[in-house]
Amino acid sequence: DRVLFMVDGTTTDAVDPAEIWPEFIARLPAKLPITVVRNKADITGETLGMSEVNGHALIRLSARTGEGVDVLRNHLKQSMGFDTNMEGGFLARRRHLQALEQAAEHLQQGKAQLLGAWAGELLAEELRLAQQNLSEITGEFTSDDLLGRIFSSFCIGK
């Protein structure tokens, strides 16, 4: 998680988010990274680019002209741990790709269990494992919800 704190550079010279909007910053979880984005650098004459102020990344750009937007894009990619796969231009975290591959494998195994042995309970376990892999990406874990839906559709063991 990260906060993008967009500031209209023509309305304030402040660059510290706690100075610009202290009530908002006070409600944020401790140590949540904040990137301050000062827009309208084409009007204010500020130097485009990135620096650091009080432990926060500060990026000056112009949304109207697009200047500096690449700096913001690269900062976000880097800060979130993304890698570039040059073949398809697809961006993903390595661990996300691994989790997707593992989830796909569990789905294939579950399908094989269901089609081969009509083993619904083994399918349910493979679905649970696939969901667990996907929860590594989303940050949510709702295996009880998933299994509840499965068991509401058919009854295992009768």
TrEMBL record:
One GO cellular component term noted in the UniProt record for this chain: cytosol
Domain MnmE helical: residue ranges: 42-155
Example GO BP: tRNA wobble uridine modification
Recorded superkingdom: Bacteria
Alphabetized InterPro entries for the sequence: MnmE_dom2, MnmE_helical, P-loop_NTPase
Protein name (Swiss-Prot/TrEMBL): ThdF
Lineage, broadest ranks: Bacteria, Pseudomonadati, Pseudomonadota, Gammaproteobacteria, Enterobacterales
